[in-house]
Amino acid sequence: MFGRLTWDAIPLGQPIPLAAGAFVVFVLVGGVAFITLKGWVPYLWREWITSVDHKRIGVMYVTLASVMLLRGFTDAIMMRSQQALAFQSQGYLPPEHYNQIFSAHGTIMIFFVAMPFVIGLMNLVVPLQLGVRDVAFPTLNSVSFWLTATGALLVNLSLVLGNFSRTGWLPFPPLSELNYSPDVGVDYYLWGVQISGVGTVMTGVNFVTTILKIHAPGMTYMRMPVFTWTALAANLVIVAAFPVLTATLAMLTLDRYLGFHFFTNEAGGNVMMFMNLIWIWGHPEVYILVLPAFGVYSEVVATFSRKTLFGYRSMVIATMAICVISYTVWLHHFFTMGAGPNVNAVFGIASMIIAVPTGVKIFNWMFTMYGGRVHYATPMLWSIGFMVTFVIGGLTGVLVAVVPADFMLHNSLFQVAHFHNVIIGGVLFGAFAGYTFWFPKAFGFRLHEGWGKAAFWCWFIGFYLAFMPLYVTGLMGMTRRMQHYDVPEWHPWMLVAALGAAVVLAGIACQISQLVVSIRHREELRDLTGDPWMGRTLEWSTSSPPPAFNFAVLPHVEGKDDYWRREHAVDRPAEPAAEPIYKPIEMPRNSATGFVCAFFATFGGFGMIWQIWWLVIVALVGAFATFVVFAWRDRTEYEIPADEVARIDRANRLARNQARAQLQAAE
After folding, report:
1. Fewer Cβ atoms within 10 Å of its own Cβ: the N or the C terminal residue of the chain?
2. Coil/strand/helix, residue 570
3. How many CB atoms lie within 10 A of CB 450?
């Protein structure tokens, strides 16, 4: 009745997984009990769980990413401490557990930290920057989020029941095939990533449609903010690349469940086909993550330099060039696999060429700062830290694109350092910059600057302490994923790397403290102007947080940085704009479709992992019924009367004008 699920699935003989699983269960049960006792369930159901408001979905994405960051960083701390202790000893992590930890760390950080973080920022900001009221498909947006949450839940379930994959963050065959991984670890990976991947494809379709088709009056493509351009490029890559991941993992699933042999050499398959397919998705995935971060830096640098962004057109061209070239470099991930000198040369050259549009962006940001009145707020610190760190990561990337060098550095800690140099220095720093920058827009009060700057410096210093030693040990021949080692020259560098991880941990503690302190002192940090940074784009033209409809009347855009020109330019109108004519606004109704789909997807995925076929059938029937009910809804929108729109907008305008008057008087 319960398939492969038995009492043996609970890791009773392994104290670390058992303690971790018990802690997670305790936190979840305690959280649910606390929310229930406080009487918050109806509010959460009405305002968050069933919400289709892009802003709330964005906040939930970022919240999920933040929680999973704690989970993924716990794995990182365990890896670094294990390698610090495992010189001529076995350390404290058994090989079986250590292999699960590095596999879970990579999977969580890419799929459930970086991806939700950048998608959350896009959800929060892009419709506001376009001057529109929501995304093209609001309910699909909700489904996307809840499927991502399902994938995260399934991955974390492996802590409590069974085990996780031991193949690395990508399930390379033959290690991931049934003969070598007969337990449920790879199955947890496959179904967690597949379900969340379906949600990501939905996100891509949603945002490509939104950005190409739904604009405020006058918002032409060449007037769109750079963050919106980078969101468009990233989602075009999602639409093209993620179906490849889905197909690849589906073939591996068929290998494991039905005895197909797509990737088994001895049965007529081809392991190299998996390598090609997974990296056709895998390298564009890097740009799916980093392109929105580039957009964040563009908005932050222009805002805190008090200047328009230098080279707007070249920035747009560079963004779309990266979008296209990202599909031509995947083979540099396996130069050592025997593709041949001609093929290697083509992909090596392409890997170097893609650095050119990135270099264009770096120079544009520096020229924007040059001659500006740079204000070193926390988002700007993250951006400057990125420029320094990402350039180093990019240069090491060009180095491993040189085929002879890659033959020496392949599978070494040098590559681990390079990858983290790009992902942490590029993506995570960008996510933190965007989080700090747009937090007051989402919640109406700023984050504490002192704690924010302390978090930046801990992250910045900790990163260099943690990963520069890996470049050195990689050049000395240390391969990745080593559970223990006997080479004395490596040990001091591993101790420094462990110290760096501890400093990063202090940075995370500062970020948690920043959030707690900011919430406690939110009245002192309150922003009633809607524009605490002297912003340049349309999201700062509405109240903080914005009303459900974003804009009482859609703005009319007359050029780039239209909001800044109207509010802060020398030639701005002397008199405030007249009150607009208010009209009723139709908004999409809340829907439980996303949550219910995730509910059935969770049980369906769990049933497939443990081969509980009756549970799979029940989940499929439930999911199908959910879609039928959703398709036959006769009321999909509700109307906000003109009087209500006027009341909300007048109150927001009054609060904004009073707050600005007080600021001007104080100056």
Report:
1. C
2. coil
3. 12
Query: Within 13 Å, how many C-alpha atoms sit on residue 633's CB side?
Result: 15
Question: Among 250, 255, 279, which Cα is nearest to 265's?
Answer: 255
What tokens were used for 220?
A: 């032409």
Residues forming beta bridges with residue 87, ordered by sequence position: 485
Any idea what DSSP says for residue 306?
A: T
Size (the chain), residues: 667
pLDDT of res. 543: 92
Residue 665 in tokens: 């008087």
CA–CA gap between residue 474 and residue 480 (Å, rounded):
8
pLDDT in tens, 489-518: 999 999 999 999 999 999 999 999 999 999
Task: Say how many Å lie between the first and final Cα of the chain, rounded.
Answer: 73
Identify which of 540, 291, 300 has the alpha carbon closest to the alpha carbon of residue 433. Answer: 300
The contacts of residue 628 (CB under 8 Å, 6+ apart) are none
Which of 441, 432, 433, 444 has its CA nearest to residue 508?
432
Pull the structure tokens for residue 70: 């704690």
pLDDT band (50, 70, 90) for residue 351: confident
Helix, strand or coil, per DSSP, at residue 180: coil
The helix/strand/coil state of 92 is: coil
Sort 54 into a burial class: Cβ within 10 Å, 0-12 / 13-18 / 19+.
buried
Lowest mean pLDDT of 117-126, 284-293, 382-391, 572-581, name the range.
572-581
Residue 577 pLDDT grade (very low, low, confident, very high; cuts 50, 70, 90): low
Rounded to 5 degrees, φ, ψ at 485 are -155, 165
The residue type of 17 is P
Residue 490 C-beta-side C-alpha neighbours within 13 Å: 24
Token pair for residue 273?
A: 């086909």
CA distance 339 to 400: 16
pTM of the entire predicted model: 0.96
Place of tokens 């059938």: 617
Is the omega angle on the peptide bond into residue 17 within 30 degrees of 0, that is, cis?
no
Q: What are phi and psi of 585, to 5 degrees?
A: -125, 130
CB 551 within 8 A of CB 133: yes
Taking only the tens place, the pLDDT of each residue in 160-186 is 888 999 999 999 999 999 999 999 999
Task: For residue 323, give the nearest of 285, 273, 268 by alpha carbon.
Answer: 285
**Residues recognised as catalytic:** 61, 71, 75, 79, 102, 123, 134, 141, 144, 148, 200, 203, 210, 283, 285, 287, 298, 314, 358, 361, 418-420
Segment (H or E) for 79: helix 54-85
* 573 has a pLDDT exceeding 60: no
Tokens of 545: 């947080």
Say how far apart CA 135 and CA 140 lie, in whole Å. Answer: 10
**Rounded Cα–Cα distance for residues 409 and 427 (Å):** 24
Summarize pLDDT for 31-71 with one digit per residue, the tens: 889 999 988 999 999 999 999 999 999 999 999 999 999 99
Q: Rounded to an integer, what distance in angstroms lies between the CA atom of residue 547 and that of residue 528? A: 13
* Residues 231, 289: Cα–Cα separation, whole Å: 10
Calculate the CA 660 to chain-centre distance: 34
